[in-house]
């Protein structure tokens, strides 16, 4: 009995009751996606409150020595009936079970809802004292007796039907006609009123809006919103429903076909955690790339063994978390980011770059899987007056493909559709079904490769402003090429919009003709003009700089990065107003110049003699990003043998060899398509993402949790396309 008591007391010493602020992981395993519903259930450490699936609890016990776990499953076992042990364990269990789980807390913290502006009419809205009282149900349009999609005008309490959609559903436009006759701007959709709010539309502002005085405005007509229940779809739900019946939603999701479900290795779906489809789609594609598989999957045991005490906060551990519901992973990669930390919909391309940036920072001195996408871009600028050229290189991860709308092959059909739409707008008739522009892929590639004209180029050869042409080519070809179709743009009113286009994207791609060749035989380069005489910081730069107009926006961007004003102006001048990339490269390339070194020291910067790529920011308020850059380039920095004075040993002996460039892979520019991500909706901030991935010569659709064999992969409607290199040694397989 004494031995048993000693064991129980030893166990009790490791048990504690959750306190406010403790992160309780009782919904999901910290190392996998096991849950209480999984086979074997979930074991929650009663000290750290981390959850572990049955296959990982022994590993945690071995590493931590923890002996007490709460086993949560459909069948729970009663605790041992020793009084002290029972009381302590029962108290801990009660506290653990009553605490909000991390996933629930994240949803509460992250969910921001739909962003709508407050109506300018709401606060001072005039409501008529006409005695109108609206019943809690049984509403009808005053004109046509329609009983759904009804809107009550908040000025006079009159009820009318909403707009008619192009497919004939919706209403008969009577609420709109009432506004046109009376000018009463605000209406609330009946059936969407709940204690939390309702759909309010401003006809004058032509948008969904917020009404901060909605309870008061509803009460004026006898409606107590605290007792109302939702009986109608919101406008967001209706928009999705209509789009799913027609257009890209049905085509991209292959809704019209009975798809065969798939399961097994590499065929696991991911739950949508609230607008997380962009993350799901990107991660599904990335983990078909061999570099990411070998980094985060093949050596999974090593990752788990080296994981910190709280693996939920470790990037490498959570990087393996592609499975059922990636709550911890989403929280980790979005932490501190103003957009990805929320539950709002996001741009998949922006998230891909954000994730690559995190991989860069966290790989540091190890294997970096993002190198699979990294390539060099060569920019060649030719002065049209002197015919002399300038070459620069930059690193990129995504090829942005322009969409030349003027090259559509169905121009007449598009013009006719626009004419019918204008007629419908003027007559109040329902708008016609939209027509999608058909753009040849060859036209997109031609637009990408054609030279760009620079009209205000400052030529160091001519010592004057002139015209130049800029041509962009590949300086290297990556193992995997990501192509973004630039579907999202701005209209003439600067309102963001999405181009509804169909592009015949090919299964195979040969970019060989777009490889840069560098300086041509007999071609002269634009001279590097010597810097002007040194000016003190408080003296305006005059003379050759003062006599020419500089691009103020580029100067400002450089200044925001921490460089002194005079150095920024010189950089813009000597690069001929060609943009931020060239100017930054000039600054970084002239750190050794006596004049420039003086300016850097004056501004509090230390001159660098070896720079792999431009350090993005130097100001103290963005120190964290500069530190991230340093850690993500440790390999390159460690390769420099630095001696006293900050100069490398080689340079101390007079060597002036160029600094090493970023590590890139190169090979033939021939590729095959293996995946694409598609977007449905009017902008990146709303809608839905799915991805299609080619596995064993079969296209598979990943629509969050739904994983099925694809029958008609909509390759013409994609947003991000993923190609892999095809060589004799690397054949087409998956």
Automatic annotation (TrEMBL):
The active site is at residues 277, 688. Coiled coil: none annotated. GO terms for molecular function: cysteine-type deubiquitinase activity; zinc ion binding. Its EC number is 3.4.19.12. Residues 268-726 form the USP domain. Pfam families: UBA, UCH, zf-UBP, zf-UBP_var. Residues 643-652 have a biased composition (Low complexity). PROSITE patterns: UBA, USP_1, USP_2, USP_3, ZF_UBP. Keywords: Hydrolase, Metal-binding, Protease, Repeat, Thiol protease, Ubl conjugation pathway, Zinc, Zinc-finger. SUPFAM superfamilies: Cysteine proteinases, RING/U-box. GO terms for biological process: protein deubiquitination; proteolysis. It catalyses: Thiol-dependent hydrolysis of ester, thioester, amide, peptide and isopeptide bonds formed by the C-terminal Gly of ubiquitin (a 76-residue protein attached to proteins as an intracellular targeting signal). Residues 549-590 form the UBA domain. Zn(2+) binds at residues 141, 144, 161, 174. It is an enzyme of class 3 (hydrolase). PANTHER family: UBIQUITIN CARBOXYL-TERMINAL HYDROLASE, UBIQUITIN CARBOXYL-TERMINAL HYDROLASE 14. Belongs to the peptidase C19 family. This is Ubiquitin carboxyl-terminal hydrolase.
């Amino acid at each position: 009995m004494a031995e048993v008591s000693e064991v129980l007391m030893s166990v009790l010493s490791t048990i504690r009751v959750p306190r406010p602020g403790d992160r309780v992981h009782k919904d999901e395993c910290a190392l996998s996606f096991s849950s209480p519903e999984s086979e074997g259930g979930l074991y929650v450490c009663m000290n750290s409150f981390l959850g572990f699936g049955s296959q990982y609890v022994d590993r945690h016990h071995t590493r931590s020595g923890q002996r007490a776990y709460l086993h949560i499953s459909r069948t729970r076992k009663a605790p041992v009936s020793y009084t002290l042990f029972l009381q302590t364990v029962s108290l801990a269990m009660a506290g653990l079970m009553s605490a909000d789980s991390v996933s629930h807390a994240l949803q509460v913290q992250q969910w921001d809802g739909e962003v709508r502006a407050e109506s300018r009419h709401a606060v001072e809205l005039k409501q008529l004292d006409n005695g109108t009282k609206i019943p809690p149900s049984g509403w009808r349009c005053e004109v046509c007796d329609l009983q759904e999609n009804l809107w009550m005008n908040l000025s006079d309490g009159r009820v009318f039907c909403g707009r008619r959609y192009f497919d004939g559903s919706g209403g008969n436009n009577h609420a709109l006609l009432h506004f046109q006759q009376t000018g009463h701007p605000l209406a609330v959709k009946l059936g969407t009123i709940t204690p939390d709010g309702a759909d309010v539309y401003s006809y004058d502002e032509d948008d969904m809006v917020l009404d901060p005085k909605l309870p008061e405005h509803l009460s004026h007509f006898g409606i107590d919103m605290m007792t109302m229940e939702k009986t109608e779809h919101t406008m967001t739900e209706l928009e999705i429903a209509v789009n799913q019946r027609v257009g890209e939603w049905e085509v991209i999701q292959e809704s019209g076909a009975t798809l065969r479900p798939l399961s097994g290795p590499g065929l696991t779906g991911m739950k949508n955690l609230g607008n997380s489809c962009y993350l799901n789609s990107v991660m599904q594609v990335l983990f078909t790339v061999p570099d990411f598989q070998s980094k985060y999957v093949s050596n999974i045991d090593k990752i788990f063994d080296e994981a910190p005490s709280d693996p939920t906060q470790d990037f490498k551990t959570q990087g393996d978390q592609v499975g059922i519901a990636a709550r911890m992973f989403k929280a980790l990669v979005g932490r501190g980011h103003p957009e990805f930390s929320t539950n709002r919909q996001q741009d998949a391309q922006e998230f891909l770059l954000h994730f690559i940036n995190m991989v860069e920072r966290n790989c540091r001195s190890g294997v970096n899987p993002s190198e699979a996408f990294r390539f060099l871009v060569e920019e060649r600028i030719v002065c049209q007056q002197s015919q002399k050229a300038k070459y620069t290189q930059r690193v990129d991860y995504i090829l942005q493909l322009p969409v030349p709308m003027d090259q559509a092959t169905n121009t007449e059909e598009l013009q006719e559709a626009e004419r019918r739409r204008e007629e419908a707008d003027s007559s109040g008739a329902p708008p016609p079904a939209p027509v999608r522009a058909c753009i040849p892929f060859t036209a997109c590639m031609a637009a990408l490769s054609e030279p760009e004209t620079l009209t205000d180029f400052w030529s160091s050869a001519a010592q004057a402003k002139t015209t130049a042409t800029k041509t962009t080519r590949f300086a290297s070809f990556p193992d995997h090429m990501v192509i973004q179709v630039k579907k999202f743009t701005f209209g003439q009113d600067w309102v963001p919009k999405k181009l509804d286009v169909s592009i015949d994207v090919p299964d195979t791609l040969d970019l060989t003709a777009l490889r840069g060749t560098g300086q041509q035989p007999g071609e002269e380069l634009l001279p590097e003009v010597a810097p002007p005489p040194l000016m003190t910081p408080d003296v305006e730069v005059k003379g050759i700089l003062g006599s020419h107009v500089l691009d103020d926006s580029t100067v400002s961007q450089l200044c925001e990065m921490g460089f002194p004003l005079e150095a920024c102006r010189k950089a813009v001048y000597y690069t001929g107003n060609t943009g931020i990339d060239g100017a930054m490269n000039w600054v970084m390339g002239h750190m050794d110049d006596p004049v420039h070194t003086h300016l850097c020291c004056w501004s509090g910067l230390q001159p660098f003699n070896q720079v792999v790529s431009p350090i993005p920011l130097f100001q103290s308020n963005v120190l964290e990003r500069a530190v991230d850059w340093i850690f993500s380039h440790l390999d390159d920095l460690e390769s420099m043998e630095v001696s006293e004075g900050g100069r490398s040993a080689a340079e101390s002996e007079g060597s002036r060899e160029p600094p090493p460039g970023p590590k890139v892979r190169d090979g033939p520019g021939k590729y095959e398509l293996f995946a694409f991500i598609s977007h449905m909706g009017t902008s990146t901030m709303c809608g839905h993402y799915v991805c299609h991935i080619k596995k064993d010569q079969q296209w598979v659709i990943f629509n969050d949790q739904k994983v099925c064999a694809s029958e008609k992969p909509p390759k013409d409607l994609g947003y991000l396309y993923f190609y892999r290199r095809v060589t004799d040694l690397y054949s087409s397989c998956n």
